[in-house]
Predict the 3D structure of the following.
Amino acid sequence: STPSLALLASEPSHHAPSREIERGGLRVAPFRSGLYVCGVTERIDTLEAAAAFLEGLINFERRPELPYARYDLAPIRNLLARVGEPQRGLSVVHVAGSKGKGSTALLCEQVLRHLGERVGTFTSPHLERWTERFRIDGRDVADAALAAAVETLRPHVLALRDADPVTAPTFFDVTTAAAFLLFAEAGVDRV
């Protein structure tokens, strides 16, 4: 059976189907005003399903029909609140700037590990596999762990999007929340 997926696509309302349709081997469900909600609508239990859900969130905030420029943290705060605030209690080293963030993060990871700390590292983009973005103690997280984190978030992302697509969590919000979930569950000393 084909997993129920929805495509992030914007089409004029008159093109929106009134029911779920098959498109490119995937079932696509209509959503408010011609927007198709992205992501897996059934349980996520594989890395492939998690990747499909996350990829469906890319650039949602840039849709021309969404009347806002989002410069606040309300969407990610709402999502994190719904999953128990996993970022609370994590000691975070935030690397910012325009160049060299990944290299700097991996350098910090190695220094902290050398000092005996358990370390979670979240970087982007990935080169080959989604799990590269989420590292614990110098190793990519397991496929199943990432799938479980995304599955934990999926119903909340869909509920928030259903309530108000304008302030729904974006790709970055969801991947960041997934990282917090993974690191909190692993009990790392530093992120």
Residues 1-19, 21-40 have pLDDT under 50 and may be disordered. The radius of gyration is 18 Å.
